[in-house]
Amino acid sequence: MTAAASRVLVLNSGSSSVKYQLLDMRTLQRLATGLVERIGEEGARLVHTPLDGGAERERTGEFADHAAALRAVAEELSADGLGLDSPELAAIGHRVVHGGLSFTEPTVIDEEVLTEIERLVPLAPLHNPANLLGIRTARELRPDLPQVAVFDTAFHTTMPEYAARYALDAQTADAHRIRRYGFHGTSHAFVSRAAAALLGKDPGETNLIVLHLGNGASASAVRGGSCVDTSMGLTPLEGLVMGTRSGDIDPAVIFHLMRNAGMDAGEVDDLLNKRSGLIGLCGANDMREIQRRIEEGDAAARLAFEIYVHRLKKYLGAYYAVLGRVDAVVFTAGVGENAAPVREAALSGLEGLGLEVDAELNAVRSKEPRLISPAGARVAVAVVPTDEELEIAHQTYALVSAE
Predict the structure, then answer these.
(1) pLDDT tens, 263-309?
(2) Catalytic annotation, pick one of 65, 80, 144, 152
(3) Residue 202 a catalytic site member
(4) Structural element, H or E, at residue 400
(5) Which of 192, 127, 123, 112 is nearest to 155 (CA)?
């Protein structure tokens, strides 16, 4: 890396999309952001937003694969004078969903790393293959540039074995790598540090319950800056009620459906991951739509909301017990940051634990980290906007700068 290189390109490659951001790590300025969606499908398009929120540009047409998509991204960046050939580009950081137990920190990518990420595909069959496509394409475009993998699971590898292990036959679990890995770790890492800063505390001395509530949702218990428990498990299906995922469910439901409804494994997988959660309960997975329907007297929407909040309360109570002392409960991600009724309902009745929100503070809409608990509250309640791309960029830049 040259002394002048301070930019990091962050790539988040999905099965049919690529999200990207280019950041200057000296100023923490976003130089460009964008999205390519429907890769390999009809109606594919690229939306690119340049420096300082300049005029958004859109390209439509055929992006047959991730290689074509990333070449188009490179062209858009070049048009702004931010091309991949710039000497100011220090590295490319890649979001990788599953690192198993092999990767506990950001890692410079080489062939050995790629082989291990591929070996982990059975644990994340929808995500790791897409992540690999983005990595391989970016390496072809800039083979000389350091490329770093940042893993969603890494933050949760500090969980003690008694929290990470399922009560399965140990030999079977070990043979098939069955354990609780957790996800959204990049968000939980960013938010837990930002929340400690908001409280004016050292992360190493701060105990937090972090609630990442988006279409996917997860909770984590963070003691002294390290995760000691999290709600997602072997896959992102376990835990909280989500937009389309069931969260916790009796495993025997699966056998019941296979024996009595004639469903095969693929159909059950589709049911639990894509047709359950909020959308399965009331036909909507957008919390704004659910709130609108509740106000109109929709009973199904009301029940879906109550089930969602009840699960949140169960995890809040469980993680309070795990931590013993809680400095703050922190809400983040799309629902956590924007849905005041969810925050209020999740903490309603928990005043005995020192948890409550100030109605006026809770109603404020802001993109800044903020406290929403009453002054002098025993346990702080905070809203901290997450920034996974910035976290990936930080981890990437720190790694390549140290080499």
Answers:
(1) 999 999 999 999 999 999 999 999 999 999 999 999 999 999 999 99
(2) 152
(3) no
(4) helix 388-402
(5) 192
